[in-house]
Each structure stands twice: as structure tokens, then as C-alpha cells.
């Protein structure tokens, strides 16, 4: 079998060769630290509901054990509910009718029917990649016909190609693409053709288009001859014909410590993708799902850091509503061998051992689970389909927290201790949930462990997390909740200005008593603030901050004081004043994926001339900064940027404008600021 992960450029494979420091970048290990970590879980701050296909992984046709009973049973035991086929970049050279991949190795007994039998035994839905690179829309339509009409397999999800931006159009060339035109526009036009042909055979199939993950190559880059980035171009042409978008994520990193910080990028990454979809899909935006069909730490592949990354990343992506997250890969093969956190790492992207050797070093027996397998198993046990994620947060960067509320009233909490050296005492507080006075069910995966241990220990409010560990708690409520109203329906927003927004929602079904009122709560980390309450199903929120992202939930309270679950979340961003004495336009003129040239045009729209000015704005994230600037004096403190005039442009007559510029740097999703002040006045953003 092939031992190469075939859907990434060689550079990505080399990134795992060096394993460095075992503490988070810039954050020292606590050593004998004894101050408890504060964990806050807030059930009033609801996030997405866990999908029934959320936990997935990849199968590849060069894996001779694809679809075997032993492998399928291991995947079933891990709770895998989505299986991807035929395997990364191989998809763009694979022809399903002949079961061939010219230029690549195809293992025996890995054809489509064998894959489906394995998926059925696993209890997982298939997600299939149609050959875009060397195939045709007709070939893909024939595959849909065979799968769903001839065989009745009911394959719902179909991707159009793999990482097609890797076809050489942006420089790197690893993805097969026989099209003379390799632009994103040509890919999008063909996605439309594929969608039409495949849905003509089976109108129920869901079609996915390939996007790039924000802050990951080639995001932000506009190639020669193009008018926009890959994502904007693809969505502008194909948004009306697709049902989901596809992301792959192998976080750029410097070492093991660094990769564990990258999960902090997930909320902004997915926010940016949703904004891109909304921009081009309009009213259809809510019908277009997001799938992360490849993910891996890209370093310390088989050892505990990859397990910590997997548990944290899966939970964080599920919180954002992704309907599937698929680990790369089931089996992959031995790579560069190293020692990580005291244990042998075989450089193998697989969840399960391939039993390969390099020199005198051999992997453990075939199908031995590696650490990420156990972490993914824990995620499956932690978040069941239909569970609702709720906000959880900690006051310690080395400890991550996630939580779900189950339909039966139970609460589950997932805790990740990223400190390689020290155990952490945690003190857990709950809002909107009262735990039973009993020892919770505790599951733990520790560094070097070959299985997950489960028992009862600690309390609902105090736990000890071993070094480099994943821990889950399952808590029963102190009293069964009966008679409460149902959760309000999905809120929507309208009339958003710089200071106000109108929130509306479908009414909650009453329980044992009539609904008395609805409360609107804003999420601020794991803390919520009540923005208002009303007896009707709409509320105008006032006193908002311009250019600010808000996530809110609605809760129903009945006449007996019983409280519903929180509604699904609603996220919106306020604008700028419709009228002001100044206006600002920020333009990203050139982007290279880790930085950009920004042009800022400032206009004095007031009636009086300005003799000297100060522009202010705040970066949305901690990983953005001004590297240098011109035509003004640029300074940055924390996330706040202050820009002052020079003798050449200090005087702005009424109606006059000046342009200034800067080089911005970013190491995560580059969400641009949308609120600016000039001499303390909030400007209109154009």
C-alpha cells in the first residue's frame, strides 16, 4: 500500500519532521502550580446541535484493508458516522467503473461496492468524491446512478474534486487537473455542470464544492488573470447549485506546542466561510452546509499531542455547526520516526497502525489504535447526535473546555489539559444547570495510554486533569426538568444598524404553563448578558457597539418560572453610522496568505475643516498586526491601532480625502475591522 498521504503537497508532509517544545508557544508549563483552573459552563449560551454524521474519517483505495470487517468494527467502536472515499487526491485520478487510478496504486478489494459494505458494517454514511481532475460530469452522473438507482445505496453526499486549487494555478501543483483552464472560474463552471448532471439522475443528492480554509494557502491570494480569490470566485458562480462547501485543515505550525494553539482559529475561520457563503448565496445561505472532509494535526501524528488536537478541534468544529469532520486517515503508513512526549511517534497520518517498518523500527501490530483514534472515540461518546453544544470556557490557556446538553437533561463536559508536565485541578461552575450531588462518570485518555479509562470520581465541580490528557464528565441534573416550555425557534435578524438590531423568532411551544416572556441573551465567552425581554416574538435591541459581532440566544420563561432550553444561536455584525462627519474605506489590495497591503481612504464629510486628525481601530483578533505603514504615523498597542496625520495631510477641508497605507500581518483568519473613529467620532465605513 502507499505510505504517502497523497492529498497534500510535499511541503506539508515535511512539516512533521521536527518535533519541538512540549508547552504552548509563549506559555510556560506551570510545574507545581496549585491554583485551580476555573471552568465555566453556561447552558443559556447555546451553540450548534451535534450532527449525526459529525465524526468521520477517510478511506483510501490504496489501503488494502479498506472495508475489512476488522477495520469496520474498529471504526464502529469509535463512533465513526461518516466515511469518505476514494481518498484525497486519488479521487481526481480515480475512475470508478474500471476501478483504476492511472499513475497511482489501487489495492485489491477496494472497489466501491467493498467500500459501501464496510460503511454499512460501520454504521456510517458515505461521502464520495467525484473525479473532477481527469473525469467528467457524465462519469460522475453514472456513478450516482449506479450507487443510488441501480444498487440503492442511498449515497447522499458527493464532493466535486479534492484540493483543486492545488492544480498549479497558484504555483503549487499536486492535484491532477486535465482542464486547459485551471482557474477557479472554470472549476466553478464545471461544478454547475456536475451538479446538474448528477441531480438529473437523483435529485436528492447533496453536491459539495471545494473551498480553501481562511488563513490557509491559497486563501486571500488572487492569481494572475483572476478577479477574486478562489472562494469568492467559486461561490459567485456555483452557490446556486451546491448544497455544501468543503474545507481541509492541516494547521500551519512551527512545532507541537504551536499546533495545539490553532484550535483558537476555528470560530473565526468558520465565521469567515459563513460570511462568504452569505455574500454569494443570499437567501440560500442557510441551506448550504460546511464539511471539513480532511483534518489532521500534521505533526506528532500518532502520539498524545495529536489526540489533544483531535478532541479539541472536533468539538470546536461541531460547536460551529459543521455536519462532518473527517480525520485523515484510517490507515496511511509509517513516516519519519521520532520521540514525542516520551513515546515513539511513527509519522503515520493513520488512526490505526499499518504495521509498517522503516529501518529497524516497526509500528505496532496491524490495526493497533493510535492516540487520535482514542480521542475521536471520546468525542463520539461525549457529543451524541442531537446533543446541543453550549458555551464552556476556562481562565487557563493550557486547559480547553467544551460542553453539550443532552435531550434527557444530562450535561457532558470535555476537558483538554495541554500541559505536558503537570496535572491541573479544575473548579467547574455552571449557569442554567444544577448538577446532582454524586460522583460523575469520568473518562480519561492519558499520555501513552492504550485505551480510554472510565469510572466515577471527583465531583461535578472539582476534577483533577492528568498531564497531556483528555477527560470527559457526564453529569445528571439535580432534579428532572418537567413541564418547561420548548426552546424558541431559530432567531433571525433584520434592520441591523450601527446601534440597533431587530431579533425575531418562532414562538416556543408551552409546557405545563403558558409562556410568559422571552429573554434575549448575548454570549460573551461563557458568560451571558441579558439584552432584554418581551412577551412577543420580536425585540429591538438598542445600545449596540458599531462594527461588533454579536451572538445571541432566546430563552422562554413560563408563568410558573420554568425556563426553556436556549434557542439555536444567531450571529450578526453591526454596521457603521449611516451619517457621520467622517467616512473610511479599508481595502485589502494585495494578499499573500500571511499578510496584505491595506489602503485606507479617509474622507472629511463634516462641515468644518480638520487641522490634524487621529484615526483609531481595533483588530478583531490577537494574531493581526500592522507591520509597517506610510503617509501617517502608525502605532499599535495590544489590538488597538492609532494613526496620526503628518504635516502633509493633517489639514482636511470639508469634503476632502486622504489615502494612507500599511502592511498587515496575520497568522490566523484575517477578519478585517469594520469600525473606525476619527478624532473620537465613529465614521461611516464604506
TrEMBL record:
Transmembrane segments: none annotated. It comes from the Bacteria. Keywords: Carbohydrate metabolism, Glycosidase, Hydrolase, Polysaccharide degradation, Signal. SMART domains: CBD_II, FN3. Residues 575-686 form the CBM2 domain. Residues 487-577 form the Fibronectin type-III domain. Residues 1-25 form the signal peptide. InterPro entries: CBD2, CBM2/CBM3_carb-bd_dom_sf, CBM2_carb-bd_dom_sf, FN3_dom, FN3_sf, GH, Glyco_hydro_b, Ig-like_fold. It holds the Pfam family CBM_2. This is Alpha-L-arabinofuranosidase. It comes from Microbispora triticiradicis.
Amino acid at each position: 500500500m502507499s505510505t504517502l498521504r497523497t492529498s497534500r503537497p510535499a511541503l506539508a508532509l515535511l512539516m512533521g519532521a521536527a518535533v519541538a517544545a512540549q508547552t504552548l508557544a509563549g506559555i510556560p508549563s506551570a510545574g507545581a502550580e496549585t491554583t485551580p483552573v476555573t471552568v465555566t459552563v453556561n447552558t443559556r449560551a447555546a451553540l450548534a446541535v451535534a450532527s449525526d454524521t459529525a465524526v468521520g474519517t477517510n478511506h483510501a483505495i490504496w489501503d488494502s484493508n479498506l472495508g475489512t470487517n476488522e477495520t469496520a468494527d474498529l471504526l464502529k467502536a469509535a463512533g465513526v458516522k461518516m466515511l469518505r472515499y476514494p481518498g484525497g487526491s486519488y479521487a481526481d485520478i480515480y475512475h470508478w467503473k474500471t476501478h483504476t487510478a492511472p499513475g497511482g496504486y489501487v489495492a485489491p478489494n477496494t472497489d466501491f461496492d467493498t467500500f459501501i459494505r464496510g460503511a454499512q458494517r460501520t454504521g456510517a454514511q458515505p461521502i464520495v468524491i467525484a473525479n473532477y481532475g481527469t473525469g467528467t460530469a457524465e462519469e460522475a452522473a453514472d456513478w450516482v446512478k449506479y450507487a443510488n438507482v441501480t444498487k440503492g445505496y442511498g449515497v447522499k453526499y458527493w464532493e466535486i474534486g479534492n484540493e483543486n486549487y492545488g492544480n498549479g494555478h497558484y504555483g503549487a501543483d499536486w492535484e491532477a487537473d486535465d482542464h486547459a483552464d485551471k482557474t477557479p472560474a472554470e472549476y466553478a463552471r464545471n461544478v454547475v455542470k456536475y451538479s446538474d448532471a448528477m441531480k438529473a439522475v437523483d435529485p436528492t443528492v447533496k453536491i459539495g464544492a471545494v473551498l480553501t480554509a481562511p488563513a490557509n494557502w491559497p486563501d486571500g491570494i488572487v492569481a494572475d488573470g483572476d478577479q477574486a480569490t478562489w472562494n469568492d470566485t467559486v461561490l459567485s458562480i456555483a452557490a446556486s447549485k451546491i448544497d455544501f462547501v468543503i474545507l481541509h485543515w492541516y494547521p500551519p505550525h512551527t512545532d507541537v506546542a504551536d499546533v495545539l494553539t490553532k484550535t483558537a482559529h476555528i470560530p473565526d475561520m468558520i465565521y469567515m466561510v459563513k460570511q462568504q457563503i452569505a455574500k454569494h448565496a443570499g437567501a440560500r445561505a442557510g441551506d448550504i452546509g460546511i464539511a471539513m472532509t480532511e483534518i489532521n494535526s500534521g505533526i506528532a501524528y500518532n502520539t498524545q499531542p495529536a489526540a489533544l488536537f483531535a478532541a479539541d478541534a472536533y468539538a470546536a468544529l461541531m460547536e460551529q455547526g459543521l455536519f462532518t469532520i473527517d480525520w485523515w486517515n484510517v490507515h496511511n503508513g509509517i513516516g519519519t520516526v521520532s520521540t514525542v512526549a516520551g513515546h515513539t511517534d511513527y509519522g503515520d497520518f493513520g488512526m490505526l497502525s499499518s504495521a509498517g517498518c522503516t529501518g529497524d523500527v516497526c509500528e505496532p501490530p496491524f490495526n493497533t489504535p493510535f492516540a487520535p483514534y482514542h480521542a475521536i472515540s471520546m468525542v463520539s461518546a461525549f457529543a451524541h447526535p442531537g446533543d446541543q453544544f453550549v458555551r464552556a470556557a476556562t481562565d487557563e490557556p493550557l486547559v480547553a473546555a467544551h460542553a453539550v446538553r443532552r435531550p434527557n437533561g444530562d450535561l457532558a463536559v470535555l476537558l483538554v489539559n495541554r500541559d505536558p508536565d503537570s496535572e491541573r485541578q479544575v473548579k467547574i461552575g455552571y449557569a442554567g444547570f444544577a448538577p446532582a450531588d454524586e460522583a460523575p462518570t469520568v473518562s480519561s485518555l492519558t499520555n501513552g495510554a492504550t485505551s480510554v479509562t472510565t469510572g466515577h470520581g471527583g465531583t461535578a465541580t472539582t476534577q483533577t486533569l492528568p498531564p497531556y490528557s483528555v477527560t470527559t464528565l457526564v453529569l445528571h441534573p439535580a432534579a428532572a426538568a418537567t413541564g418547561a416550555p420548548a426552546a424558541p425557534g431559530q432567531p433571525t435578524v433584520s434592520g441591523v444598524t450601527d446601534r440597533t438590531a431587530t431579533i425575531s423568532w418562532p414562538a416556543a411551544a408551552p409546557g405545563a404553563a403558558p409562556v410568559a416572556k422571552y429573554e434575549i441573551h448575548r454570549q460573551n465567552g461563557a458568560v451571558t448578558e441579558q439584552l432584554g425581554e418581551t412577551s412577543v416574538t420580536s425585540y429591538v435591541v438598542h445600545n449596540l457597539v458599531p462594527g461588533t459581532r454579536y451572538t445571541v440566544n432566546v430563552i422562554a420563561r413560563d408563568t410558573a418560572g420554568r425556563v426553556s432550553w436556549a434557542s439555536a444561536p444567531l450571529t450578526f455584525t453591526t454596521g457603521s453610522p449611516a451619517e457621520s462627519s467622517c467616512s473610511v474605506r479599508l481595502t485589502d489590495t494585495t494578499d499573500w496568505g500571511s499578510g496584505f497591503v491595506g489602503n485606507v481612504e479617509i474622507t472629511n464629510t463634516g462641515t468644518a475643516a480638520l487641522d490634524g486628525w487621529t484615526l483609531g481601530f481595533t483588530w478583531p483578533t490577537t494574531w493581526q498586526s500592522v507591520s509597517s505603514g506610510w503617509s501617517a504615523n502608525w502605532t499599535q498597542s495590544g489590538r488597538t491601532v492609532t494613526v496620526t496625520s503628518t504635516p502633509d495631510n493633517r489639514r482636511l477641508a470639508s469634503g476632502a480625502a486622504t489615502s494612507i497605507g500599511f502592511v498587515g500581518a496575520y497568522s490566523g483568519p484575517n477578519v478585517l475591522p469594520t469600525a473606525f473613529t476619527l478624532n473620537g467620532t465613529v465614521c461611516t465605513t464604506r
